[in-house]
Design brief:
alpha+beta; four-stranded antiparallel sheet; 6 helices
Length: about 180
């Protein structure tokens, strides 16, 4: 699978660039795309089938850049080689000098809809249900009293937690609609 993900560096490989952005811009925001809800495909159908799905998702994320949903200045990484999480460290807003957590929320909502719709044809025959990737977001501020590594790791963990919460919330909303 390593050749299918070469275009995105790992978080560790891009860390210096991410750290520099945090220091220079005083804050940094991120979007986390978690593919772990699709891991059942690998368990049920094997590595080769899952890799096809993974490549499809990677291509979808590449399209986000081409369609300017993700800016060229944003730093897109994976959590580790053959990782199941993509991190998008967002650049400053063009119109405003800075971005806010509400900006990240709207980006995350757009990405969730776009990605889940794009992977539908690839994953629905394998999962027997509508596929969904979990998407979270977080923001952190530079604090000279704390190491940047700690600030960034804490932000990633916040985004992971929020991704799980948003997935659970969406499930509950769908259940509520069914019973109405």
């Amino acid at each position: 699978m390593a050749e299918s993900i070469q275009q995105f560096p790992t978080y560790t490989e891009a860390f210096g660039k991410i750290k520099e952005r945090l220091i220079n811009d005083f804050k940094i925001g991120m979007i986390l795309i978690d593919l772990s809800p699709l891991s059942g495909i690998e368990y049920t159908y094997g590595q080769a089938i899952y890799e096809n799905v993974y490549v499809s998702i990677k291509q979808t994320i590449m399209k986000l850049i081409d369609l300017k949903q993700v800016r060229k200045d944003d730093i897109v990484t994976i959590n580790q080689e053959e990782g199941s999480q993509f991190y998008i460290f967002v650049s400053k807003n063009r119109e405003k000098k800075e971005f806010h957590i509400t900006d990240l929320e709207s980006i995350a909502d757009r990405l969730r809809i776009f990605i889940n719709n794009k992977i539908l044809a690839t994953t629905i025959p394998l999962m027997k249900k509508r596929p969904s990737v979990n998407i979270g977001y977080a923001i952190t501020f530079n604090n000279p009293l704390l190491k940047e590594e700690r600030l960034l790791q804490s932000m990633i963990e916040d985004a992971r937690i929020l991704a799980k919460y948003r997935a659970k919330r969406n499930t509950m909303m769908h259940k509520e609609r069914i019973y109405e």
